[in-house]
Amino acid sequence: MTFAPAKLTALGAFWVAQGGVNLGIVGDTAHAARGVSYHLGAGQLLPDAYSAQTTRDRAGLTNAASAIDLGKLGGSLPQLRAFSTWLVAQARANVPGTSDLREIIWSPDGVRVLRWDRERGHASEPRTGEADDSHRTHTHISFYRDSEARAKVALFRPFFEEADMLAITDRTAVTVDIPVGRQLYALDGKTPVVKVSNVVGALSPFSSGTNRAVYITTGGVLQLLLARTADCVIHPLPATDCAPLVAAATEPLKVQLSVASARLAAIKTAGGF
Q: In sequence order, which residues have a C-beta less than 8 Å from that of residue 7 and are 6 or more positions away?
């Protein structure tokens, strides 16, 4: 029979300790009936199960389950979506520690269901049409089966580490235009990230000193970056109800601050400063 291995159980316990709901590791009767899932061990899988076809999965195949389903975080589906979007971004960037991730199935907005699959390449685009709508309210994470004995908590931990928060000096949300060629920076305000090609009407949720925080999509990934306020043409938001626009900014903000915190922690650990 399928069992929940120790390292995956520890990951589930960590998730719960952060305020998340652990929906399970070992597959239920519906999983068992289909016989293909990473929630099942060798004894319950069909011979052609996709979860036992890669070299890594065949090498590590035991009766252990190799997936976890995550529910609400902090009582909130938006927080689950923020975490899931962050984790996919980590995996697509091939951040150290993400190589054991086989697939992530989640919803970034409660409507679309996306699946990222490392077998298509770590930087590959997530795709629709590969999982059912139950993933609008939970996130499925599969690990390669040869990772059964490897610790997994460090994969989640950076998201929850306390961020070195930016000094927010003005919380007035605006939109900004930024001329071609202007430099954008990471949240430390010092590290150059990209020079803009054409930014018109980008959402800027706040100011930090002489910078404006701006949402920019680069390489297909939404990022919160800093632009020098002097480089920005600022437009007030319309007087009509802009709450949905501002609310849409709140969710990815936590993601980006968490990523920045993880990067700063890594630099400190390496003795960078």
A: 147, 148, 149, 150, 151, 152
